[in-house]
Amino acid sequence: MADVEPDALDRGFDNFDAFFTRQLRAGARPVARESRAVVSPSDGLIRDSVEIDESTRVQAKGHGYNLAELIADPELARTFIGGTATTIYLHPRDYHRVHCPCDALVERVTLIPGRLLPVNDAALARTPGLFALNERMVHTLETAHGKMVVVMIAAFGVGHMTCSYRHIEPHPRAIRQLVCEPAVRMRKADELGIFHLGSTVVLVTEKGVEPTSAALPAKVRMGQVILQGNGER
Fold first, then answer.
1. Catalytic residue from among 63, 96, 99, 145
2. CA atoms of 58 and 52, how far apart (whole Å)
3. What is the mean pLDDT of residues 154-168?
4. Is 199 a catalytic residue?
């Protein structure tokens, strides 16, 4: 609670959701501003940071999924062959707003309906391809390091994710996509969306954007450097 604005604590919260999605005080999450630094979009535990193979499949620690299914876009998925998929698990105690990993233009946001299965380690081992089964929100970005997508994945008890820069209504059975015309200009650490309970974020980057640490799992905070880009595109 030391990360929350004192005024917010004094006012209190109208309900549990307002408490759970509370904003942070200014400076609570220092952001690495170097142009090549790609920062964590959220608090959480980096489970893995692995290469995307020629079939656009992501295989990590015994569980895998097809990137084309995860983001519901086979053509875009092919852009990321040889790139990296970084998976961050958010515990309920973590800060649950999701932010832009670098300066970017947001081209579109896609809501994909699905299940609300748990995303803990036991559930991942039990259900192959779980991430591509659950409900998710996909933010598609154009950056100096190439294309990126930030995928917010729902989980057990998390039927509610909101987009912070455009209003988009979910549909229980159909994919909803909103093309941003014009594209939404975001600075590093600007807010992309909100989880209204715990879940997982997958950050997908093109080839040439490299993890900064091989020691995983690793606890991170939003704004901390997790990848290094070339910044030349």
1. 99
2. 5
3. 82
4. yes
HEC readout, the chain: CCCCCHHHHHHCCCCHHHHHCCCCCCCCCCCCCCCCEEECCCCEEEEEEEEECCCCEEEECCEEEEHHHHHCCHHHHHHCCCCEEEEEECCCCCCCEEECCCCEEEEEEEEECCECCCCCHHHHHHCCCHHHCECEEEEEEEECCEEEEEEEECCCCCCCEEECCCCCCCCCCCCEEEEEEEEEEECCCCEEEEECCCCEEEEEECCCCEECCCCCCEEECCCCEEEECCCCC
pLDDT for residue 196 is more than 90: no
- Active-site annotation holder among 40, 42, 43, 63: 43
Of the residues 40, 42, 49, 199, only one is catalytic, namely: 199
User: What mean pLDDT comes out for the span 45-57?
Assistant: 91
Centre a 10 Å sphere on the Cβ of residue 124 and count the other Cβ atoms it contains. Answer: 24
- For residue 217, the model assigns a pLDDT of 87
pLDDT at 211: 93
Confidence band, pLDDT 50/70/90 cuts, at residue 216: confident
Distance between CA atoms of 182 and 192, rounded to whole angstroms?
16
Q: What is the pLDDT of residue 232?
A: 59
Q: What pLDDT band is residue 194 in, cutting at 50, 70 and 90?
A: very high
